[in-house]
Design goal:
CATH superfamily: Outer membrane efflux proteins (OEP)
CATH architecture: Up-down Bundle
Number of helices: 9
Number of strands: 6
Helix content: 55-70%
Number of domains: 1
Strand order of the largest sheet: 2-3-5-6
Strand content: 5-15%
Order of helices and strands: HEHHEEHHEHEEHHH
Radius of gyration: 39 Å
Shape: elongated
CATH class: Mainly Alpha
Structural class: alpha+beta
Length: about 450
């Protein structure tokens, strides 16, 4: 009985271990892998892929106008026919039809090709946008995790400060207000830590949604984040994909409008062929024809058909509508280019400020670190001054905790400034059309 109980306990422990293994051992996820997963999981990318497939089908459809269509049918009677019904029954009939020459159709093909190019560019733009979103979320979550570690260290220093002030207040060395200020500092740091925990949880949820990975199963790899290049507006600018897509869509609309306009002016030629195998089963059609010339069994006809447009108000109005759509599409493409130029100017101006702020925050962090080292040295060796009137007072133990708290705060401020700078640089990369270069470097890292 004891042996069976022991086996049961072993099975329970193994089951719990297997169930908690994914939680205990989260998968290491590099930035490049996160971007690839996000691009495969993105609904926007899937929608753009569907648009590409639809554009490919539309292009094939415009070309199919020059490919012969073949239809086969049958007209077997269901019951005996009575009298002359006006139609010749056939057991098999076939029809072949194709367009031979049409100047408007050539324009429609060009329009479909431009629409396909626009859809392909829009797909690349969607992938870039998803890569930007995933990279921003990954870098921000990595930064917040570092800030959270620093905030938790601050909390421990604040708790130590409160304990020191409690002892000094009870000994009558410090006033009660000093103890209250220490408690306020600890409470503020606790609130800051809670804020960072909420922010980290939100970013983790966002990154999990982007990549499709379960929440809590991702462990970031800080070393996988490459340095983001400091681009400037005077760097060789490339037309962004979103602007290129708008331009190609405008071209497609213009070609469609041109085709509609040409359809009012130029003729088109088509070829038709018809075959039918007639039958006299269940009918008396031969009674109505000359006995010497009964209904022929095999019949075939073919010919060329040329259509000359003379008067068609519906087609004319359709041409006006397509011309207006082309004009609107061209204006939207120009508007997209102008908005991108404005964004580049704004990002360039913001980058100068953010770069200066990051430098200031970094210097403050270095100063706080040096001040902490000085405080630790004085606490260990003394202030080195004489005991005269001008001598500096000996530092108390609470000075160490205050210096440590200040150094950790300056470290967090430096991380925040660097994060804002990284976000601005990524957005400028995309606005200048160099996002793909950075993604290539990211995947090669």
């Amino acid at each position: 009985m004891k042996v069976h109980r022991h086996k049961a306990w072993v099975q329970v422990v193994l089951a719990l271990t297997i169930a908690t293994a994914p939680t205990l051992l989260p998968a290491q996820l590099t930035l490049a892998t996160a971007v690839d997963l996000a691009q495969r999981n993105s609904a926007a990318v899937k929608l753009a892929q569907a648009d590409v497939q639809r554009a490919q089908a539309a292009l094939a459809q415009t070309k199919d106008a020059f490919i012969p269509t073949v239809d086969l049918g049958s007209g077997l009677p269901a019951m005996p026919a009575v009298g002359f019904t006006g139609g010749v029954p056939s057991i098999l009939n076939g029809n072949v039809q194709t367009m031979i020459f049409s100047l408007p159709q050539f324009q429609y093909i060009k329009a479909a090709r431009a629409a396909l190019a626009a859809a392909a560019l829009n797909l690349k733009s969607a992938r870039e946008q998803v890569a930007l979103d995933a990279s921003t979320a990954y870098i921000e979550l990595d930064t917040v995790n570092q800030e959270l570690d620093a905030a938790r260290q601050q909390q421990s220093f604040a708790d130590r400060l409160v304990a020191i002030e409690q002892e000094r207040t009870e000994a009558g060395v410090d006033a009660l207000s000093d103890l209250l200020e220490a408690r306020l500092t600890a409470a503020q740091l606790k609130l800051s830590c809670l804020h960072l925990e909420t922010r980290a949880a939100t970013l983790a949820e966002q990154l999990a949604t982007l990549t499709g990975a379960p929440v809590g199963s991702i462990a970031l790899e800080h070393a996988s984040i490459p340095e983001i290049p400091a681009m400037k507006a005077d760097v060789a600018e490339r037309t962004p994909l979103v602007v290129q897509s708008a331009q190609m869509l405008a071209l497609s609309k213009e070609k469609t409008a041109m085709g509609n306009r040409m359809s009012e002016l130029y003729p088109q030629m088509s070829f038709n062929a018809l075959y039918s195998r007639n039958t006299t089963i269940l009918n008396n059609f031969n009674e109505y024809y000359n006995p010497a010339h009964p209904i022929p069994t095999n019949n075939f006809s073919s010919g060329f058909e040329i259509q000359f447009p003379l008067f068609d108000w519906s087609r004319r109005d359709q041409g006006k509508q397509s011309a207006a759509e082309a004009l609107r599409a061209r204006a939207e493409a120009e508007q997209a280019q102008q908005q991108n130029d404005i964004q580049i100017a704004q990002l360039t101006g913001n980058l100068r400020e953010l770069d200066a702020l990051a430098e200031v925050a970094g210097l403050k962090q270095q100063i706080a670190d040096e001040q902490l080292k000085s405080v630790l040295a004085q606490l260990e060796l003394g202030n080195g001054a004489s005991s005269g009137p001008a001598a500096q007072p000996q530092l108390s133990p609470k000075a160490e905790q205050l210096a440590r708290i200040d150094e950790r705060q300056k470290f967090q401020d430096s991380l925040d400034a660097a994060l804002d700078l990284a976000k601005a640089r990524l957005n400028l990369l995309r606005a200048l059309g160099h996002m793909e270069d950075w993604l290539a470097e990211l995947r090669a890292k």
